[in-house]
Amino acid sequence: MLILSTVTNELAETQGLAARLAEELQGDEVIYLEGDLGSGKTSFAQGLINGLGCKGIVTSPTFILQQEYRCSLPILHLDLYRLNQPMELEELGLEEYYGEWILLIEWANLFSSFLPPPNIRIKFDYLSPTTRRIEISSFLDRLKSLKGV
């Protein structure tokens, strides 16, 4: 179910939306971030991770594939862009994290049939160098409060 469709006009606005979502999380969510290169996935991830209380630099784990953050809730940030085959997912040991960590997965759409299903899906569209369309979908009742954002 589509919870929110909005346009952000600057980086701080995108990250602020992510921080607002972070307030609603409980620690067992699977979040898919979908969109083209440069559409705002990593910027959103930065805002979400910072919103969970982890301060400092958050970068996309493009080359290391995954990064753990022990914030107010533990979060595993993944970037699957560089994976070539589904069996490479097994090497990441994701089953250790299921149900106990937030899984924040960039490029999940490349291997969605081999991942746990999302309970939050966020789609990003690049509109201009500073403007993004962001759509948040979920069936989690607690996220309905985002409708007023």
Strand content: 25-35%
CA radius of gyration is 14 Å
Tell how many strands the DSSP assignment holds: 7
Q: Which spans have pLDDT < 50 for at least 5 consecutive residues?
A: none
In what order do the strands lie side by side in the largest sheet?
A: 1-7-6-2-5-4-3
Helix fraction? 10-25%
- What series of H and E elements makes up the topology? EHEHEEHEEE
Write the CATH architecture name.
3-Layer(aba) Sandwich
What does this entry look like structurally?
The chain is α/β, with parallel strands linked by helices and 149 residues long. It has one domain: Rossmann fold (3-Layer(aba) Sandwich), CATH 3.40.50. Helix content is 18%, strand content 28%. It has helices at 11-22, 41-51, 87-90, and strands spanning 2-8, 30-34, 66-70, 74-79, 102-106, 120-126, 132-138. Strands 1-7-6-2-5-4-3 form a seven-stranded mixed β-sheet. Strand 3 and strand 4 (74-79) form a beta hairpin. Helix 1 crosses helix 2. The longest helix is centred in the first third of the chain and has 12 residues, at 11-22. The model has no long low-confidence stretch (mean pLDDT 89).
